[in-house]
Amino acid sequence: MITQPVHAHEPAPVPRNAEGIGAALSGERRMEFYRELLAAAPEDAEAVLRRWWCEAMLDAAQAAGDRLTEAALNGTLPTRSITESVERRRAAGLPVE
């Protein structure tokens, strides 16, 4: 049996470094992140980055969800028919049962 991932492996929307995390956070949270990172002992810096990366990822997911909701409410959400979906799955070699 061969298995394949459901989702293609794409780079994370937030890079796993201080610059990427800081860019993904909004003003006040960004300042809190940098304060915590600068105050951390060198051996604790990785844990601070890891925690704040998770926060930044959640923020990015929330923003994407907000855009999706807004598009649905505005009637601008791209749609596709069931026939198109089935054809796409067939073309990708996925089951359509």
Account of the 3D structure:
This protein is an all-alpha fold. The protein has one domain (18-91). The chain is built from four helices and no strands. It has helices spanning 18-24, 27-39, 45-74, 82-91. Helix 1 packs antiparallel against helix 2 (27-39) and helix 1 (18-24) runs parallel beside helix 3 (45-74). The longest helix is centred in the middle third of the chain and has 30 residues, at 45-74. The chain is elongated and about 55 Å long. The two termini are 18 Å apart.
Keywords:
single chain; 97 residues; mainly alpha; 62% helix; elongated
Layout of secondary structure:
Blueprint: H1 18-24, H2 27-39, H3 45-74, H4 82-91
Helix pairs in contact: 1-2, 1-3, 2-3
Helix content: 55-70%
The helix/strand class is: mainly alpha
Q: What does the largest sheet look like?
A: none
Give the termini separation.
Answer: 18 Å
Strand percentage lies at under 5%
Q: Whole-number radius of gyration? A: 19 Å
Mean pLDDT, all residues = 88
Number of strands: 0
Poorly predicted spans? none
Number of helices: 4
Global geometry: elongated
Query: How many separate domains?
Result: 1
Q: What is the string of SSEs from the N terminus onward?
A: HHHH
